[in-house]
Specification:
heterodimer, A: alpha+beta, Rossmann fold, D-amino Acid Aminotransferase, Chain A, domain 1, Dna Ligase, domain 1, six-stranded antiparallel sheet, four-stranded antiparallel sheet, 24% strand, B: alpha/beta, Aspartate Aminotransferase, domain 1, Aspartate Aminotransferase, domain 2, 2 domains, eight-stranded mixed sheet, 14 helices, 14 strands, globular
Chain lengths: 318, 475
C-alpha cells in the first residue's frame, strides 16, 4: 500500500475548485487501495509532509501556489515525489505571458498580444501605447491577468472606453496583464497524458456554453451550464492538428505527466490558435481532462493511477 | 518503492459499492444533472461564492460577515441557563414540540414585539427556525413559478436564493437614504398591472436594511402600507435589526401601522440574542399563518424545543433589554469606528451610507470599479467585504460593497477599512493613469458633495443609491 498525500485547497482563488478536484482524487485513490492523507495546503505544509511522510504527493491544487511551481519547489526540497510538472514548467504555464512568448518563439500559433505590468502604466506611460495596441488587435479585445486560471478576471473590452476598467479589473488578480486579440470561434481543449510511449494527446473536447457569451468561470464548474462534446466534431484534419499542437505545447513548456492545452478554432478562417496550457488541469466532475481521458477509454480511477505511477517512476528515474 | 497496481481483484464486480459500469466522468455528470429539478437551474454557484470561501480563512479581516458578536453573551449565564433547562425540562427539551412553537416562547415573542410598539397575540405567531425560514415558508406558500416578487435594490443577499429556488420573477426597486423609493414601487406596480401581473408579495427590510444600511422613512412606511391595502398585496417585513438602533427615534413597524392585515412580519432572536439558537418567528394574517404552519410541518415539523426552552429561561431569569443595551452600545461604537475609518481612508470618489442601526454600511465607488474583482485584490491584503452584486439578481451593484461592523473589533475595523481604502485608491489611481485623467488629489479635510449620477444613468434612478454622502462631521 502506498501512502499518498493529496494536496488540495490552499489559499488561491481557485480553492473551491481544488477542493473538488482533491475530493475526487481521494475517492479514486481509496478505491485503488492507497492510504490517503488529505492535506489542505497552508502554513503547516512542510510540517504535515514531514509528519505524515507520504510516499508520493498528488498535487490537486489550482492557481497561485499550487500551480505556479511554489508547492512543487517545496516538495522537491522535502524530497517527496509528486504528480505533474516540475517547477519550471509550472511557472511557464501559470504565467500566460511567458507561455505565449515560448509558443510564439517556437512557431505555435497564438493570438497576438501585448503584456504589461502595473509599473509600465504607472511609471512608463504605457497608457499612451493603448491606442496603437487597440488599432493592431482590433475590438473586441480580451484583457487577462497573466497568472490566473479558470478565466477569473478575464474581461472583454468591446470599445476603447472599456479598456481602462477592464485593465483595472484584470490588475485585481495579478500585477501583470495582457491584451489579446479576440478569436471568435469554437473553444477546444486537448489534454495530454504521458504514457509508456511518451506523451499522448487525448481526444479533443469542445466546450459549448449554454447561455453565456463565453465560457466563464461560472459556466466552467457548474454542472449543466456548459455542454461538452468529446471527441469534438471538427472538419477534416483539425482534430489531429489540435492534438499535434497540444503535444508540441506540452513539450515546449516542459510539462510532465499531464497538461491541458486550450485552443480556439477561429470561425472565419478555420485557423487554430493556442490560448494557454494548464499544468494542473481540473479534475472536478465538470473538468475537461477526465472527460477526454474517458473518451480515450481511461476511466477516472485509471487516470489517477496513471498520473500517480508517473510520479513514482520519475522518482526512480532521478 | 512501487505504486501498487490498481487492486482490481479486491474490488471486483461482487463488491456492491463498485457494481455497475466503471466510474465514468460523463456518467457522473449526467447521473446527477439529470436528477436536478428545473427550479435549481437558476441557482448558480458563482465567482463570488468561491472568492467568499477564501474570506473565511483565519488571517483575513472579514468585514464580509453579518455576524453578531456572540462573545458578549456571558458564558456563565449560558451554562447556568442550559443546566436549568436540563434539570427542569429535560424530557420536553429532548422531545418534539408543537409546530407553531411553545406557548411560553410565544409570550417572550409578544414581549419583544411590544418593545417595538407591536401588539400581537400568541395565536398570530409561528415560531420558526431562524428568520430565514420565514422567507422560505412565505415563498413556499405563496409562489408559483413565474410569480413576481418585489424586492429592494439592493436587497438582502440571503433572500435571493429562496426567491430563485421558487422560480420567482424578482423585480428590484431602487432605494435612497430614506429606504425603498415608494413612488417607483407604485410606478412598477402600475406597469406590472398593465401586463396583467400582480406581485405576490413585496419583500422589504425597512429598518437599517441589509445590505444598504438605510431606514424607510415614516411617510414612506405609511404609504407602503396604504399601497398594500389598496392593491391587496402582502408585504413581507423582515425586521431583524429594529431593536439595534444607535441614534434617532424608533419608527413604527409596517406591521404596527397595518395592524397585521397585509403585513407578514419576520422577527428573529438572532441579532438580539444569538443566531446559533436558530429561532425566529412570523406574525401573519391568520389564513396565511395557517398555510405557513402547514409548510413548516413539511420543512422541519418544529423548531428545536431545546433552543425554545433556553430562550424562555433566559427571558424568565435575565434582563434581555439590558443585554440589548450592551449590544447597541458595542455596535454603536463599532459603527462610529467604521464611519471614521471610511472618512479617513476611503477616497473622496467613494460614498457610503450612515446607518442609524443594524449591522451594515453600503459603500459605492465610481462605476468603473468592479467590486467583485476588487475583492480578489483585497484578499491579497487579507481583508474581505461582500461585493455589491450579491444584492441584485440583475447584475447591478457592481461598484458597491457591503461592510459589516458588528462582527469584528475596533482595531480590525480600522485596519480592514484602511486596507480596502488602499486598494481602492490604487485602482482609482491606475484608472486615472489609464484614461490620462489627473491623478486624484489627496483626500481633502472638508466634506465633499457626493458624486453626481452619471449621465448614462436611468433618469428615474437619478437619486438612487449611491446614497447621499454624509461624513461623520455632519451627524
Amino acid at each position: 500500500m502506498t501512502r499518498v498525500a493529496v494536496l488540495k485547497g490552499g489559499r488561491s482563488l481557485e480553492r473551491q475548485v481544488s477542493l473538488r478536484s482533491g475530493a475526487r482524487v481521494e475517492d479514486a485513490l481509496e478505491r485503488l487501495g492507497h492510504d490517503v492523507v488529505s492535506i489542505d495546503v497552508g502554513p503547516d505544509l512542510v510540517d504535515r509532509l514531514e509528519d505524515t511522510r507520504p510516499d508520493v504527493a498528488f498535487v490537486a491544487l489550482h492557481g497561485r501556489d499550487g500551480e505556479d511551481g511554489t508547492v512543487q519547489e517545496l516538495l522537491e526540497l522535502v524530497g517527496v515525489p509528486y504528480t505533474g510538472s516540475r517547477p519550471g514548467a509550472c511557472i511557464r504555464c501559470m504565467d500566460k505571458v511567458l507561455a505565449k512568448h515560448a509558443m510564439r518563439d517556437a512557431g505555435i500559433p497564438t493570438p497576438d498580444f501585448y503584456a504589461f505590468n502595473q509599473t509600465a502604466f504607472e511609471e512608463l506611460g504605457a497608457a499612451r501605447a493603448l491606442p496603437a495596441i487597440e488599432a493592431r488587435l482590433r475590438f473586441p479585445i480580451v484583457v487577462k491577468p497573466a497568472g490566473q486560471g479558470s478565466a477569473l478576471g478575464v474581461q472583454f473590452a468591446r470599445t476603447a472606453e472599456d479598456v481602462p476598467a477592464a485593465l483595472v479589473s484584470a490588475f485585481s488578480y495579478d500585477t501583470k496583464v495582457m491584451l489579446e486579440r479576440h478569436v471568435a470561434g469554437r473553444e477546444l481543449a486537448v489534454s495530454v497524458l504521458d504514457g509508456l510511449a511518451g506523451p499522448e494527446a487525448l481526444p479533443v473536447v469542445e466546450a459549448i456554453p449554454r447561455d453565456e457569451d463565453f465560457y466563464d468561470f461560472e459556466a466552467r464548474y457548474e454542472i449543466g451550464r456548459t455542454s461538452f462534446v468529446c471527441p469534438a466534431d471538427l472538419p477534416g484534419g483539425l482534430g489531429e492538428r489540435s492534438q499535434e499542437l497540444a503535444l508540441s505545447v506540452h513539450r515546449i513548456l516542459g510539462c510532465r505527466s499531464f497538461s491541458r492545452v486550450d485552443l480556439m478554432l477561429e470561425e472565419r478562417t478555420d485557423a487554430l490558435y493556442v490560448l494557454e496550457a494548464n499544468a494542473i488541469p481540473g479534475l472536478t466532475e465538470t473538468s475537461l481532462l477526465p472527460q477526454a481521458a474517458e473518451a480515450a477509454g481511461i476511466g477516472f480511477d485509471a487516470l489517477v493511477a496513471r498520473v500517480l505511477e508517473l510520479a513514482v517512476e520519475r522518482r526512480t528515474a532521478v | 518503492m512501487t505504486i501498487d497496481e490498481p487492486p482490481r481483484g479486491e474490488h471486483g464486480d461482487d463488491d456492491l459499492r463498485h457494481a455497475g459500469p466503471a466510474r465514468s466522468t460523463t456518467r457522473d455528470l449526467e447521473r446527477y444533472a439529470g436528477l436536478f429539478a428545473t427550479r435549481t437551474h437558476g441557482l448558480k454557484s458563482s465567482v463570488m461564492r468561491d472568492l467568499m470561501a477564501v474570506t473565511q480563512q483565519s488571517d483575513i479581516i472579514s468585514l464580509a460577515g453579518g455576524l453578531p458578536d456572540t462573545s458578549t453573551f456571558p458564558a456563565e449565564s449560558f451554562s447556568s441557563l442550559m443546566s436549568h433547562v436540563g434539570a427542569e425540562s429535560s424530557a420536553r427539551a429532548l422531545q418534539y414540540g408543537p409546530t407553531e412553537g411553545l406557548d411560553e416562547l410565544k409570550d417572550c415573542i409578544v414581549e419583544v414585539m411590544a418593545a417595538e410598539g407591536m401588539r400581537a397575540e400568541p395565536d398570530d405567531i409561528l415560531v420558526t427556525t431562524g428568520g430565514q425560514q420565514v422567507i422560505d415558508l412565505v415563498c413556499r406558500t405563496l409562489l408559483d413559478p413565474g410569480d413576481v416578487v418585489v424586492a429592494e435594490a439592493p436587497t438582502y443577499p440571503g433572500a435571493l436564493p429562496s426567491f430563485v429556488a421558487y422560480q420567482a420573477d424578482v423585480v428590484q426597486i431602487e432605494m435612497d437614504d430614506a429606504g425603498v423609493r415608494v413612488d417607483l414601487l407604485e410606478q412598477t406596480l402600475d406597469r406590472l398591472a398593465t401586463e396583467g401581473r400582480r406581485p405576490k408579495f413585496i419583500y422589504t427590510v425597512p429598518s437599517f436594511s441589509n445590505p444598504a444600511g438605510v431606514t424607510l422613512s415614516l411617510e414612506r412606511r405609511r404609504r407602503l402600507v396604504r399601497i398594500a391595502r389598496e392593491r391587496e398585496l402582502l408585504v413581507l417585513e423582515d425586521n431583524p435589526y429594529g431593536l439595534l438602533r444607535y441614534e434617532g427615534d424608533p419608527l413604527p413597524t409596517l406591521y404596527a401601522l397595518d395592524g397585521g392585515e397585509y403585513v407578514i412580519y419576520l422577527g428573529t432572536f438572532s441579532k438580539i440574542l444569538s443566531p446559533g439558537l436558530r429561532l425566529g418567528w412570523t406574525a401573519a394574517p391568520r389564513p396565511v399563518l395557517e398555510k405557513l404552519n402547514v409548510g413548516k410541518q413539511g420543512a422541519d415539523l418544529c423548531s428545536a424545543p431545546l433552543s425554545q426552552l433556553f430562550v424562555c429561561r433566559y427571558f424568565g431569569e435575565m434582563d434581555w433589554k439590558a443585554y440589548l443595551r450592551t449590544l447597541t452600545d458595542l455596535y454603536r461604537r463599532r459603527r462610529d469606528t467604521m464611519l471614521d475609518a471610511l472618512a479617513e481612508h476611503f477616497p473622496r470618489e467613494a460614498t457610503w451610507t450612515h446607518p442609524e442601526g443594524g449591522l451594515f454600511i453600503w459603500a459605492t465607488l465610481p462605476e468603473y470599479i468592479d467590486t467583485t474583482d476588487l475583492l480578489a485584490r483585497a484578499l491579497r491584503e487579507h481583508v474581505a467585504f461582500v461585493p455589491g452584486r450579491a444584492a441584485y439578481l440583475d447584475g447591478r451593484g457592481g461598484a458597491s460593497m457591503r461592510l459589516n461592523f458588528s462582527g469584528v473589533g475596533d482595531d480590525d475595523i480600522r485596519e480592514g477599512v484602511r486596507r480596502i481604502g488602499k486598494v481602492v485608491s490604487e485602482q482609482l489611481g491606475l484608472y486615472s493613469t489609464l484614461t490620462g485623467a489627473a491623478t486624484p488629489e489627496p483626500r481633502p479635510a472638508s466634506a465633499r458633495p457626493p458624486r453626481a449620477a452619471s449621465p448614462g444613468d436611468d433618469a428615474s434612478g437619478a437619486e438612487i443609491l449611491p446614497l447621499r454622502l454624509r461624513r461623520t462631521g455632519e451627524r
